[in-house]
Write a structure and sequence with these properties.
It is built from three helices and six strands; from the N terminus they run βαββαβββα. By secondary structure, it is of the alpha/beta class. The protein has a single domain, classed as 2-Layer Sandwich (Macrophage Migration Inhibitory Factor). The protein starts with a strand and ends with a helix.
Length: 120
């Protein structure tokens, strides 16, 4: 059930949003070993953002998932996600801010039930 939300002050014009969303969605399947059928990706551009006192292009990436949130996975996934954001949006790596949250399955719902009931 991974979810990724990339928000940025990069202008929407010039960004292939369909390709960007596909890239971010696929990156989650690789990072968390789940089928793309259970991944949700959201992209918000043209945001008003100041990072490190500057409005230069930057991105905030929010990842929510169930499990695989630890030092080992986070180190690998932050590197990979930073690379994808840099590649797709042209934001330099030092201006990509990432937060990864481990959501208990009882706090995640889909198709009118909580995920813990699906996982057993």
């Amino acid at each position: 059930m991974p979810f990724i939300h990339v928000s940025s002050n990069v202008p929407k014009t010039g960004v292939d949003t369909t390709k960007a969303l596909s890239t971010f969605s696929k990156s989650m399947t690789l990072a968390y070993g789940v089928p793309e059928a259970v991944v949700m990706a959201k992209l918000t551009l043209d945001e008003m953002v100041v990072f490190a006192g500057s409005d230069a292009p930057s991105a905030y990436v929010e990842v929510r998932t169930i499990g695989k949130v630890d030092k080992e996975h986070n180190t690998i996934n932050v590197q990979a996600l930073t690379a994808r954001v840099t590649e797709v949006l042209g934001v330099s790596a030092e201006r990509v801010f990432i937060v990864i949250d481990d959501v208990p399955s009882v706090n995640w719902g889909v198709n009118a039930v909580t995920v813990d009931t699906i996982l057993g």
